[in-house]
Amino acid sequence: MDLFYLAISATFVNNILLAQYLGNCPFLGVSKRIETAAGMAAAIIFVTILSAVFTWAVLVYMLRPYGLEFLQTLTFILIIASLVQFVEIILKKKSKVLYDALGVYLALITTNCAVLGVVLLVARKELAFIEMLVFSSTSAVGYALALLLFAGHRERLQISAIPRSMQGTAIALVTAGIMSLAFIGFRGMAN
Amino acid sequence: MITPIVLLTSIGFVAAVILGIAGRLFYVDEDPRIEAVANLLPGANCGGCGQAGCNATAEAIVQRRLEVNVCVVGGTETAEAIGTLLGYDVTGSEPKLACSTCEGGYRAARKYHYSGLQDCRAALQLYHGFIRCENGCLGLGSCFKACKFSAIRMDNVSGLPVFDPDRCVGCGSCIEACPKGIISLVGEKTKILHWNQYTQCLSPCRQRCPAQINIPKYLAHARRGEYGAALMTIKDNNPLPVATGRVCPELCATECRRTINDDPLAINPVKRFVSDWERSSGKRIPVSVAADTGYKIAVVGGGPSGLSAAYYLRRLGHQVEIFEKMPKLGGMPRYGIPDYRLSDEQLDWDIEGILELGITAHTNVTLGKDFTIQFLRNNGFDAVYLAIGAWFGRMIPLEGKELTGIYSGIDYLRRFHTDEEIIQGKRFVVIGAGNVAMDCARSALRAGASSVLLIFRFSRDLMEANAHEITDAENEGVIMRCLVSPVRFIGENGRLTGIEVQEVTLRHSPTGGLPEVIPVEGSNEIVDCDVVIQAVGQAADLNDIIAADGLAKTRYSTIDADEDTLQTSLPGVFAGGDCYSGPRLMVEAIAAGRYAARSIHYYVTTGAIPPIEYRQREMMAPAMIDSLVNVIPTPTSAIKPVIPVEDRMGTFREVEGTITEQQCQQEANRCLNCGIYCYDQDDLPRDQTRIARSCPNEPHIVEKEEMALPN
Ligand code: SF4
Ligand code: SF4
């Protein structure tokens, strides 16, 4: 498969967040300020790529040869959880500020469906190593992009005149819906 | 079946081993309490407390940078759980409430309508804000929209936000939304640590007061008869209101906006009234003290500066001990101000109020002789504040200076308050024209002198003493001769018998500053006298301290300290008051004490002293308003009662009395409630009174209420 199309598809057309609706909780939870959204985006990109590499290796060298593909979901959750713990330990030591800023959301990545979704898609599409790298990194970038764009919107929304009943999460969900429609507009550019 | 189990177990095992190794390699030595506190927090990571997340909050709570009740989601239960875990009383943690210092006057009627713009920040960027007031509230209510707890409503009449203390959780969202910086989160600590900034909406009197007392606020309380609240507002910035109410030269009144129309407000007499109101009630209004921080601070010097620093440090939760070289606390106000202006009992009331907060005082101990800074450090004091004053009276080195009968002003005055013998004489000459000189001259007359001549080498308009001190001295019989300079002292058998003086003229100095003094040839004359008092300046005596601890001093013989932090050349040692600035006003020493308390508090708790952004140092030029609209001239009626001159001699009875309650209220009612650009324009008809309400910390003048007058 053409790597370029794969990248475009993962970033825009099949955006993991706005087209596939995976990873909605941090999308709504950490998007109030661009700064926090950027921190979260960085963490997601990092964890997704790392998880994809490890899960791909386990899938290709352990599960598939022994016909144990039915264990995919269970194994992947185990791996992602351990990886997030690992990242947390290192962040705490090396970048206390980032660690504090991410706070409980770092732990939330453990159960983030976007990360799990990406690695399961890699398995389902039976991607080769390079393809897996491109797909996982661009999917994560797509997620980050959506998150940052949304945070930008929400910052604006905060100083706009919004009817009281629509303030907060209500207007955020409406905005997310419209953004999602905009991303659907990429349909047809790649599969 | 076996294979999947083996596989999953081995993956889990490998992960556990790797995590175990990582945990050892990247081990962070963390206070276990931080994790425990983090577990008690709801983990919502909402950022409502202003921290980067719950972990950061937990850390700040454990390090006592934040109060246990900081979490806006957790509520009282969480606060209590954390308080129990950390072992301190949750009731001691202070709630912080949002409030605005902008009182707006009657802006709403003149509110500018921004076409289509409904947000303060946008309006500010496009039109620089409100059409009349460039500093005050714009009234579009961005704070109201930002508050998630419905704690703000916009008042229809005044156009100002009104805060509901029961709903406000102190999250600070409103502060972020306000582009004008007029909303602040106020708790007791905030008030103590706050320093006036150019970005605030400050009335001219408040800008000029060295102690930065919120004058419009206490006047608002006083005019409503809330004397306790008025006094507490004063004590937020000045713990010695009885003393300053008597001796302060009232710099604030010189800037009072009322002067444009009639007389300045009698601000200090109102202060004196409310502080005397508490004193005569005999019951002290309790002052809050924060939970114990465990830090120990030594304050050297029990004068106004040392006492203020001790007062505010104690209120911030630190353990404070005062070390004083004289037998009693009080410093210069006790030993340098005569009883007819400020008596020992009056000063004692203020001092006892300070000590009652739990401050220990050691008297008769001198720094450099009985103990050293090193000694204090070795005894567990985390910081030291030097406020040792300027006790050394300067003398002019003229011929005959060794004769008996020549004293410094401070030496003369001190003896009235100690066991030392009082200096007696018949014919006194006082050199100098400051408040100390007036005090010496007036005391000498009371102590039995037959004549007192005060000589000053500059013209009368350059006399430094308060204007009314000079007139009082003259009324009592002090003869003043300006443009006269001393030449030499004359004596017989080692005793002073006279002083040779010479007339002078002044010439404008090309470098600015004081004019040049030119002697008039042939004008020398000899004045017979038996005592000469030189009130020509004071200095700090630093030699012993420098020898013992190596403190750096300036070329003016004052302690060298950083202007922004008051920290001296020795880390953790701070200096302020007369020993740092040279002899100044009592209220300036008090201000220095609070400023030092701020620095010391940050120093011991965080290790760094944050600079004050936009610190207000000079009067803000744009605040100058040169005409008043709609304000009917009403001269002051707060003239203090004074005792007749005949009753003053031979006794040290207080000369000036306190104004009456009625005078106090009338005077407070004259206040225009000024903001930086605005003032309350509508003079009140007699049947209305201003109502200050809504904010627990700052009264908002939100409406005028009709008061039925008896027919
Ligand atoms: S008034 Fe201000 S500080 Fe108080 S709850 Fe509302 S936004 Fe937060
Ligand atoms: S009128 Fe009141 S607020 Fe205005 S300057 Fe005078 S004392 Fe201060």
UniProtKB/TrEMBL annotation, chain A:
Main location: membrane
Subcellular location: Cell membrane; Endomembrane system
Enzyme nomenclature, EC number: 7.-.-.-
Transmembrane segments: 6-29, 41-64, 70-91, 103-123, 129-150, 170-190
Domain of life according to the entry: Bacteria
Functional summary from the UniProt entry: Part of a membrane-bound complex that couples electron transfer with translocation of ions across the membrane.
Subunit structure: The complex is composed of six subunits: RnfA, RnfB, RnfC, RnfD, RnfE and RnfG.
NCBIfam families according to UniProt: rnfA
HAMAP family in the record: RsxA_RnfA (MF_00459)
The protein, known as: Ion-translocating oxidoreductase complex subunit A
Species of provenance: Desulfofustis limnaeus
Name of the encoding gene: rnfA
From TrEMBL, chain B:
Ribonucleoprotein is among the record's keywords: no
Domain annotation 4Fe-4S ferredoxin-type: ranges: 127-157, 159-188
Alphabetized HAMAP family for the sequence: RsxB_RnfB
InterPro entries to which the protein is assigned, alphabetical: 4Fe-4S_dom, 4Fe4S_Fe-S-bd, 4Fe4S_Fe_S_CS, DPD_II, Elect_transpt_cplx_RnfB/RsxB, FAD/NAD-bd_sf, FAD/NAD-binding_dom, Helical_ferredxn
Residue ranges annotated for the 4Fe-4S domain, each copy included: 29-88
Top enzyme class: translocase
EC number of the protein: 7.-.-.-
Gene name in the database record: rnfB
Protein's UniProt keywords contain Repeat: yes
Cofactor: [4Fe-4S] cluster
Record key words, sorted: 4Fe-4S, Cell membrane, Electron transport, Iron, Iron-sulfur, Membrane, Metal-binding, Repeat, Translocase, Transmembrane, Transmembrane helix, Transport
Binding site for [4Fe-4S] cluster 2: C133, C137, C143, C178
Family membership: Belongs to the 4Fe4S bacterial-type ferredoxin family. RnfB subfamily.
Details of cofactor binding: Binds 3 [4Fe-4S] clusters.
Residues reported in the UniProt entry to bind [4Fe-4S] cluster 3: C147, C168, C171, C174
Record function comment: Part of a membrane-bound complex that couples electron transfer with translocation of ions across the membrane.
Subunit record text: The complex is composed of six subunits: RnfA, RnfB, RnfC, RnfD, RnfE and RnfG.
Residues annotated to bind [4Fe-4S] cluster 1: C46, C49, C54, C71
Transmembrane segments: 5-27
Pfam families listed in its UniProt record: Fer4 (PF00037), Fer4_20 (PF14691), FeS (PF04060), Pyr_redox_2 (PF07992)
Record's protein name: Ion-translocating oxidoreductase complex subunit B
Subcellular location: Cell membrane
